[in-house]
Amino acid sequence: MYFLLSLLTTSWLPVNAYLSESWSLMSSDRPNVPKCVDIPANLTLCQNMQYTQMRLPNLLDHDTLREVIDASRDWERLLQLNCHPDAQLFLCSLYAPICLDKEILPCKSLCQAVKNGCEPRMAAYGFPWPEMLSCGGYEEGDMCIKPVNSLKPTESTCAACQQVATYENLVDNFCRSSLVVKGKLGKISSNSIKVRNARSLKKGDRRRSVGETEIQLSAQGKDCPCEVLETTDKSARVLIMANRDAHGHFVANLIVPWQKEKNFKRAVHSFQRLNCHSLGREIRESARRRPHAYHLRTHELPPV
């Protein structure tokens, strides 16, 4: 992944001189001047970013690290749902912005891409895209953070093959899928797979053993690359979740190798007792706004 500054079009700006000036200003003791601080280890949302220091106050008007950490916890589970690959980039551009003198906002295209990917998943659990993150407050320009994952449809990996095996994502997809099986890979083509020696994991399913089943990799049976299938041995087990489309064909929602990792096993063990109707309660409670609401400041991009 490129360093975050490579996302900015700054050909007209001497970057080294700009950074030097910024660090100098950030480290000053003058009142009301933003400062640079290390991203703390307990700011889980923004770990493993391509920079280690953030700007305070941030773009949501949090003045202290405690405020940032408390507010950011609302979004940790959203990242675990893997609703969009740029979700962390977008959220951390607001909660833990890179430490420069001038504020660098996310581009409107970045906000909209993340919103389009995550809003439906959030709505399924009973809460809307928050007004404080409205994409109407952003613009396109030279000095804004652009989307990283903007592959053309013909180049895109199958969505089912990009899923992460976090507890939250596994139970979320379980509740959204009518077919959930543990099995072995059979015949593989560019747009479908066959699963053999499969066992259903759906609660109360009397047909525990499932015959060879063909599953499309994407809607309308379109071709798309699936690295999971290329790297998984045919003798190994896989977890597959799917739904039937309007034509009665199964379309994959999730394909991951079977794992012995702690949270993977925890998710699988929960399948038989999972109440999908109340699954969003914990997420809704963690995402509920605190009594003091934070509002994104009104920004204007400098003229280009």
TrEMBL record:
The UniProt GO MF terms for this protein read:
Wnt-protein binding
Cross-referenced InterPro entries, in alphabetical order? Frizzled/SFRP, Frizzled_dom, Frizzled_dom_sf, Netrin_domain, TIMP-like_OB-fold
Q: Specify where it is mainly localized.
A: secreted
Q: Does the keyword Membrane apply?
A: no
The cysteines covalently paired via disulfide bonds are: C46-C92, C111-C135
Give the residue range of the signal peptide.
1-17
Gene3D superfamilies (UniProt xref): 2.40.50.120, Frizzled cysteine-rich domain
What is one cellular component GO term in this UniProt entry? extracellular space
PROSITE patterns, alphabetized: FZ, NTR
One BP term from GO: canonical Wnt signaling pathway
Q: Which residues form the NTR domain?
A: 158-276
Residue stretches making up the FZ domain: 31-147
The record's subcellular locations are: Secreted
What keywords were assigned to this record? Answer: Developmental protein, Differentiation, Disulfide bond, Secreted, Signal, Wnt signaling pathway
Which SMART domains does the UniProt record give?
Answer: FRI
PANTHER family attached to this UniProt entry: FRIZZLED, SECRETED FRIZZLED-RELATED PROTEIN 1
Q: Which family does it belong to?
A: Belongs to the secreted frizzled-related protein (sFRP) family.
The protein's name: Secreted frizzled-related protein 1
Q: Which source organism? A: Mesorhabditis spiculigera
The root-end lineage is:
Eukaryota, Metazoa, Ecdysozoa, Nematoda, Chromadorea
